[in-house]
Amino acid sequence: MTARIIDAHDVAFFDLDGVIYLGPVAVPGAVDGIARIRATGARVMYVTNNAARSADAVAQHLRDLGFEAGPDDLITSAQVAVELLAESVPEGSLLLVTGTQNLVDLAHAAGFRTTTNADDLPDAVLQGYNPLIPWPLLDEAAIAVQRGATWYATNDDLNRPTDRGLVPGLGAQLAVVGSTVRQQPVVFGKPHAPMLDYAVTHTGAQRPIFVGDRIDTDIMGANRAGMPSLLVFTGAHGKRDLLEAAAGDRPSFIGADLSALLAPPRAAAQQGHSWHCGDAVAELVEGVASVQGQLSTHSGQLDALWALANLVWATDADATDALARLDQLH
User: What pLDDT tens digit does each residue of the chain (330 aa) get?
Assistant: First the structure.
């Protein structure tokens, strides 16, 4: 029997938005998939860039959706940001926090003072995602940074997936401040190194894998941390994003959803000017890519996509028509 992806790993890190849930609803099949992954003996750890809610609140949301979860099963960018700031910024320093109450509470627990007024001359600005951010608070952050406060951010996701579609993320709020101060913040969340380095240290993982729905945070972050990754198609990024991923930003595996961890990995092999995966073939004819295979099934389309991705990465072929045939993948 061919080994499943999960069999090679002791800890599976999962992004939340777009992998586990879409706002108020679970991704179809995710509850059962996580239960089956736990049954293999692998540790499940949720790692999210979303800094808006506390670990307790997120764990409760997961339990409400049917997942087994407690705060010890979660790592948030807010936790990582505050814990690492406490190692480099003196206790008692004044932070101008532009985030939710969760970020303020974490800062207080770490021994920092907080303000929302640049005239208090804060030592640093710490931005975290707040879906109800008051515009004047962004003004205060920009003024504080211009006056010399060090600028930090929990993460820099430009958008985030919901059950209704993509909405602006913290990256959009950072861009508002950045357009004024003309500099960039120190960022803790994926794909930047602090987040996954913290996750590995926190769990003691020896053979981790990361499961995510975004190339620019999850997959890039995993690659920078030196761990394999699984890209799933239940959230923000789709087939075109996969093909356009630069060398070094590509996933180790792809799957329809997180249950792909419980299956053998898709393997693509080159044969002449074509790439093969399962029964699917992607070939290059006069600079244009084409795909053949069991395209009437979702699994067959994923095989074709993996073959096509490897062909495009190797040749930079025009895949417009081939992608159009993979109509079951977003």
Answer: 579 999 999 999 999 999 999 989 999 999 999 999 999 999 999 999 989 999 999 999 999 999 999 999 999 999 999 999 999 999 999 999 999 999 999 999 999 999 999 999 999 999 999 999 999 999 999 999 999 999 999 999 888 878 888 899 999 999 999 999 989 999 999 999 999 999 999 999 999 999 999 999 999 999 999 999 999 999 888 899 999 999 999 999 999 999 999 999 999 999 988 999 999 999 998 889 999 988 889 899 999 999 999 999 999 888 888 888 887 666
Q: Which of 15, 218, 241, 303 is catalytic?
A: 15
One-letter amino acid at 197 equals D
Which is catalytic among the residues 7, 10, 17, 123?
A: 17
List of residues 6+ apart from 39 with CB closer than 8 A: none
Q: Let me know: does 83 contact 77? Beta carbons within 8 Å.
A: no
Biggest CA pair distance of the chain: 67
Instruction: Quote the CA–CA distance of 113 and 200 in Å, as a whole number.
Output: 29
Domains of the chain: 5-49+191-262 (3.40.50.1000), 79-187 (3.40.50.1000), 269-325 (no CATH)
Does the annotation mark 17 as catalytic? yes
| Residue 216 among the catalytic residues | no
